[in-house]
Amino acid sequence: MLVKLVRLGRDAEVKYTQNGDPVASLAMVYDIGWGDKKRGQWIIGTLWGKRAESLGPYLTKGTQVVLYGDDVEVEQFMKKDGTSGAKLKCRVSDLELVSGQSQQA
């Protein structure tokens, strides 16, 4: 299980399956490194069920949340400039909204 303090890089997209089940797509980022070496690590997550539907309006760009994720995997891809990149993907088992002001990503 992955537990991490992250911020949302964009507003959550809540959609519905053909069966009517809600699913929210989340783009989250956290910082790796220190000082000049700091960079962002992206996590793409999916939150299913009523929790996705009820939290959707609150999951806006810059909002900080504590992520509880399962089924974490690395997806590798080629960037437009020809270099390789990677992002984490996970199934979000739960989220906790962190109080305070949001930061713009």
Describe the structure.
- This protein is about 5% helix and about 60% strand.
- It is mostly beta strands.
- It has a five-stranded mixed barrel.
- The mean pLDDT is about 90.
- Separation of the first and last Cα atoms: 25 Å
Question: Strand tally, please?
Answer: 6
Strand content bin: over 45%
Question: Helicity, in percent?
Answer: under 10%
Features:
5-stranded mixed beta barrel, 6% helix, 105 residues, 1 helix
Gist?
With 105 residues, this protein is mainly beta.
Give the topology.
Elements: E1 2-8, E2 13-16, E3 22-32, E4 39-48, H1 50-55, E5 64-78, E6 84-97
Parallel strand pairs: 4-6
Antiparallel strand pairs: 1-3, 1-5, 2-3, 3-4, 5-6
